[in-house]
Write a structure and sequence with these properties.
mainly beta; 5-stranded antiparallel beta sheet
Amino acid sequence: AKETTHNVIATGGINVKLVESAVGESGEKVPFRNLEDLMPGETVSKIPQVQNLGDAPAFVRAGVDLTATLADGTVVRVPDGLINANYNTIDWTSGGDGYFYYNDILKATALTEELFNTVTIAPELSKIYKDATFTMGVSAEAVQAANNGTSAITATGWPEE
């Protein structure tokens, strides 16, 4: 005698979305919009958070990439100290690898705490940045939390660079 069965095993979905907002003129959160005509020394509101759109708890990390497109069209990486975000080091931890790791498991449909909430342009910008356009790219990644280490930093499965 012989019998065959087929079992279906489905995994939980991991899906995150980056949500960027800013503090509006009357103090409420509004969607972030690109800014123009900023001056050295100026501080602006920019609030990135990550939302779990999946149906499974996830570990989350975020990366920040700062570039400048100079007046002649050359794109350069912005040196440390020229554009400074006030990182939330209570809820996020720098992994020393270019990413900030969220300290809690992000439940389904939940939103992380703010990665940062303001960005300041250094007052001593060099003349090479005259008429430059700065880009602060924020990216978010997630991996399953179940059976995957004790924190986002110890979790495995992060995309390889």
